[in-house]
C-alpha cells in the first residue's frame, strides 16, 4: 500500500509491537494504581515515537490525540461500573461537567495553535506535580470541605477539562486529587473522575482529529492526530490487562509501586524538559 511506502517492514512491526506494549503497560498501571491510562499512554507513546523517529513537530500531538481516543471506550466501561456500584456522584457531575466541557473546548481549540514543544511543556509540568503529589501527599490532607459555589466549581471544571485535553488524559488524574483535597470521599472521587473521562475524551479526541487533518509527517494510518493502529492495539491490551493489574495489586506492596510510578513520571517530566532545552 502506498501509505506504507516510506516505512520499512521492521519499522512498522516495531510500531505495532510498541503500541501493543503501551496498552499492556497502561492497563497494568491502571489496574495496579487506579490511575487513568492517559497519564501512562502519553509518556510511553512520546518515548516510543522518539525512538521510532516520528517527526518532533507532530510527536506530542499524535501521542495526546491517540491517548484521548483510547480513553473513550475504557471510560465508558469504567463509568458504567462505578455507576452500578453507586460510586458515581451525580451531584458532583452536575456541578463540574459544564466547566469541564468549556475547558475541553478551550483546550481542543488551543491545541490547534500550540506547537509540540508547548504541549510537551504542559504535560511535563503537570506530570511533575502529579508525581510529587503521589510521592509526598499525606493521608487526610484537605484544603476545604466540599466543592465551592457555582463559580468556583466552574473554574475547577475548566481547569480539569482544559489541562486534561491538552495532556491527553482522562478526568481521574486531576479530578481525584482535587476532589479528595476537598474532602469528597475517595470512592466518589474515583467514580466521578471516571465519568469525567468520557466528558473530556470525546470532544478532546474530536478536536485533535480535526486539528491534525492534512498535517505533514504524521505516522502511517493517522487520522488527524489519532493513530488508528495505536487505537486498535492499545485499547484491547489496556482492557485485557487492567483486571490483571487489579489482581496483582493485592499481592504486592502498593505503596512502593506508587512511589516507583511517581519516580517514572518524575523522570519522564525531567526528560521532556531536557528535550525542550536542547
Would you write up a description of this structure?
The chain has a two-stranded antiparallel sheet. It is globular. With 278 residues, the chain is mainly α. Helix 3 packs across helix 5. The protein has one domain. The longest helix is centred in the first third of the chain and has 29 residues. The model has no long low-confidence stretch (mean pLDDT 83). 76% of the residues lie in helices and 1% in strands.
What is the secondary structure topology, with strand pairs?
Blueprint (H helix, E strand, L loop, with lengths): L8 H25 L4 H14 L4 H29 L5 H22 L4 H21 L13 H18 L4 H10 L4 H27 L9 E2 L2 E2 H22 L4 H24 L1
Antiparallel strand pairs: 1-2
Helix pairs in contact: 1-2, 1-9, 2-3, 3-5, 3-8, 3-9, 4-6, 4-8, 5-10, 6-8, 7-8
Amino acid at each position: 500500500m502506498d501509505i506504507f511506502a516510506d516505512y520499512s517492514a521492521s519499522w512498522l512491526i516495531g510500531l505495532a509491537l510498541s503500541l501493543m506494549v503501551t496498552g499492556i503497560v497502561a492497563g497494568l498501571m491502571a489496574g495496579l494504581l487506579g490511575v487513568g491510562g492517559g497519564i501512562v499512554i502519553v509518556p510511553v507513546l512520546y518515548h516510543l515515537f522518539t525512538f521510532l523517529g516520528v517527526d518532533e513537530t507532530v510527536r506530542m500531538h499524535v501521542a495526546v490525540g491517540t491517548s484521548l481516543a483510547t480513553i473513550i471506550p475504557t471510560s465508558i466501561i469504567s463509568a458504567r461500573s462505578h455507576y452500578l456500584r453507586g460510586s458515581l456522584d451525580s451531584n458532583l457531575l452536575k456541578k463540574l461537567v459544564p466547566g469541564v466541557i468549556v475547558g475541553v473546548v478551550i483546550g481542543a481549540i488551543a491545541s490547534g495553535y500550540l506547537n509540540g514543544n508547548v504541549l510537551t511543556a504542559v504535560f511535563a509540568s503537570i506530570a511533575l506535580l502529579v508525581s510529587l503529589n503521589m510521592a509526598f501527599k499525606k493521608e487526610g490532607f484537605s484544603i476545604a470541605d466540599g466543592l465551592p459555589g457555582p463559580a468556583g466549581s466552574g473554574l475547577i471544571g475548566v481547569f480539569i477539562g482544559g489541562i486534561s485535553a491538552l495532556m491527553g488524559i482522562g478526568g481521574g488524574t486531576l479530578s481525584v486529587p482535587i476532589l479528595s483535597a476537598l474532602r469528597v470521599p475517595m470512592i466518589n472521587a474515583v467514580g466521578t473522575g471516571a465519568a469525567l473521562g468520557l466528558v473530556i475524551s470525546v470532544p478532546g479526541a474530536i478536536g485533535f482529529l480535526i486539528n491534525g487533518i492534512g498535517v505533514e509527517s504524521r505516522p502511517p494510518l493517522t487520522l488527524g492526530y489519532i493513530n488508528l493502529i495505536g487505537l486498535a492495539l492499545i485499547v484491547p491490551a489496556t482492557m485485557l490487562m487492567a483486571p490483571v493489574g487489579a489482581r496483582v495489586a493485592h499481592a504486592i506492596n502498593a505503596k512502593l509501586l506508587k512511589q516507583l510510578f511517581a519516580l517514572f513520571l518524575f523522570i519522564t517530566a525531567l526528560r521532556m524538559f531536557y528535550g525542550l532545552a536542547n
